[in-house]
Write a structure and sequence with these properties.
Elements: H1 13-28, H2 45-50, H3 77-88, H4 96-108, H5 111-116, H6 126-147, H7 149-154, H8 165-169, H9 172-177, H10 187-197, H11 205-212, H12 234-253, E1 272-276, E2 296-303, E3 310-312, H13 322-327, E4 331-335, E5 361-363, E6 368-372, E7 374-376, H14 380-392, H15 402-413, H16 417-425, E8 429-431, H17 437-447, H18 462-469, H19 478-530, H20 532-536
Parallel strand pairs: 4-6, 7-8
Antiparallel strand pairs: 1-2, 2-3, 5-6
Helix pairs in contact: 3-6, 4-6, 4-10, 6-10, 6-11, 12-14, 16-17
């Protein structure tokens, strides 16, 4: 046998080719620290059932998934072509036609890399798929450059009108569509176009994207800044930046921590068992929005004798809502990221994009729970749901499931509308849409619908939840503590039972009145059909003759005056 011959061990050529194709698809994706071989995964079915519209683009389609799926998504095709023309007229003074040909040749060589990024087996000819990659990548790169004041002036387009930035910025849904999981293209295409068209300028695509989506404000943006986060598309870039940002802030405080500060490291594991996570608040028995069938976790049953902190092997539910935490001596405060403090806009329009920050911390020394502000805008639900969907498709060390954990954490903080109002009063939640407490509570309940909590069990944040669940502060007065519990737990429970009792009595009374009216109607009808002679005479409702009282006989006339007649 020749050295180059590979034995197939009885494997048919078709099976061998299929194995080669599947292995190539898994291995060609560049495995990085925070990404897995399949970068653009599909939305899990259970998550899609919660709100399928949140996982579909509303205005513009990017990539092959929704190409030509709806007529309203095709109107942006002309804008994409115009953006590509504007991009070709930037950078080095080279003919646009020459740049276009170089871009096409470069993309044609990336077929295996592009197909390896998608979980679906794309049943599309490579020429058609390459055309989609070229037009969409050109549009996105032009959009990122035109949205940056510095780069837009430095790499000024020689085409008039130059760019679509104004038109896109006026449509907030377009920016939101760019963070839909199944509406992505590999960033490797944007990097390749940047190398060819803007050869003389070193541009960080990731930095431009973070600036565009609101995570790096213009005042902090630097052309040479490289965030250093591994990503394969825009949504993964945002997720990686959220996780890396939390790790960076955590690393700065690592040297200042002591044994009393959360979170304490997990000690030896003695016994492990499986428990279903309760779907009710441990204090007031209100619905916490968890799917009991999905929310299954591993919990360590032993406790630390010194700190009385529940030890975890994976994750535990936050079984204390915000008022109960206050009764236990926990102080909830809102925090603002350093890059937002000087640019906080309380009158922000609801269609503006705000970044996420889930770097929640608990200081056991003083019982302070620091929660970054959560801004509710038009893009919040779509972006958060798609970040959770991306996490649900990734497991292990490549994903810390920060967004899934945050959704479960906020659900644990709220068990009724009053809890939502408490967090709004503390400015932890900023409602730019004026949804109201009930709709906000429904929003947080729906955001975790269909979430597989087992996949988020590797998040290190569950250690902090264990500490919060067992925390007992010393600064909370007994009167204040029991007044909060009485107001939040006992009184609502009594009113709920009282309302049920009153409602049952009211329903019983209405039923008895209805039954009495029905019986009266039946007896009237029976009496009508019981006397046909009266019915034929036309006296439908007159009583029968024998039932009428007899007229008394007439009185005799009075005697005449004067005696006997």
């Amino acid at each position: 046998m020749a050295a180059n011959d590979v034995p197939n061990n009885g494997m048919e050529d078709g099976d061998l080719n299929g194995w080669k194709e599947s292995a190539s698809k898994a291995l060609l994706g560049s495995f990085q620290a925070h990404s897995e071989p399949i970068g653009i995964s599909n939305v899990p079915r259970k998550l899609r059932e919660g709100n399928k519209n949140a996982f579909m683009p509303k205005t513009i389609s990017i990539g092959p998934r929704y190409k030509g799926a709806r007529r309203d998504l095709m109107k942006w095709q002309n804008i994409k072509l115009h953006s590509m023309q504007s991009l070709l007229h930037r950078g080095a003074n080279k003919p646009a036609k020459t740049k276009l040909q170089e871009c096409m040749e470069a993309i044609l060589k990336l077929e295996k890399e592009v197909r390896a990024n998608y979980a679906d087996d794309l049943k599309m000819e490579w020429n058609d798929l390459a055309n989609i990659m070229l037009s969409d990548a050109g549009f996105l790169l032009e959009l990122l450059i035109s949205s940056s004041k510095e780069f837009n002036e430095k790499l000024k387009s020689r085409l008039a009108p130059p760019n679509p930035d104004g038109e896109v910025k006026r449509t907030g849904e377009v920016v939101t569509d760019l963070l839909v999981l199944e509406n992505q293209i590999p960033l490797i295409i944007l990097h390749k176009l940047s190398e060819i068209i803007l050869v003389e300028d070193d541009i960080s695509i990731e930095s431009l994207a973070l600036n565009f989506f609101g995570y790096i404000p213009d005042e902090r943006f630097r052309p040479d800044f490289n965030p250093g986060v591994a990503s394969r598309h825009f949504l993964e870039l945002i997720h990686s930046y959220i996780s890396e940002d939390s790790e960076e802030e955590e690393g700065e405080q690592q040297d200042q921590r002591n044994e009393q500060r959360c979170c304490n490291p997990i000690k030896s594991i003695k016994s492990v068992n499986f428990q279903k996570v309760s779907n009710t608040c441990a204090n007031c028995a209100s619905d916490c929005g968890y799917d009991v069938e999905d929310a299954m976790g591993i919990r360590e049953e032993t406790t630390d004798a010194d700190s009385n902190v529940q030890q975890l092997t994976s994750y535990a539910q936050l079984n204390r809502c915000a008022p109960i935490l206050a009764a236990a001596g926990v102080t909830i405060i809102k925090t603002i990221r350093s890059n937002e403090e000087k640019h906080e806009n309380p009158t922000q329009r609801p269609n503006e994009i705000r970044g996420f920050n889930f770097n929640i911390k608990f200081q056991k020394t003083n019982g302070t729970l620091e929660i970054p502000q959560l801004h509710i805008t038009k893009s919040t639900e779509v972006t958060w749901r798609n970040l959770i969907a991306w996490e649900q498709g990734h497991t292990g060390f490549s994903c810390k499931h920060k967004c899934t954990w945050a959704a479960l954490f906020f659900n644990g903080l709220m068990c009724c509308e009053n809890d939502v109002q408490l967090l709004k009063d503390k400015q932890v939640i900023v409602d730019h849409l004026d949804l109201g407490n009930r709709k906000l509570l429904e929003f947080f309940r729906s955001i975790v619908h269909g979430v597989d909590s087992d996949k988020a069990s590797d998040s290190p944040c569950w250690e902090m939840v264990s500490v919060i669940n067992s925390y007992r502060g010393t600064c909370c007065l007994g009167i204040k503590k029991y007044s909060i519990i009485l107001r939040h737990s006992w009184i609502p429970t009594v009113f709920r039972h009282f309302d049920r009792l009153v409602l049952r009595g009211y329903n019983l009374l209405i039923g008895m009145i209805s039954l009495y009216a029905l019986m009266q109607t039946i007896y009237t009808i029976l009496g009508y059909y019981e006397h046909p002679r009266v019915r034929n005479s036309g006296q439908m409702f007159s009583p029968p003759p024998h039932s009428l009282p007899r007229r008394p006989p007439p009185l005799p006339p009075p005697p005449p005056p004067g005696g006997v007649p």
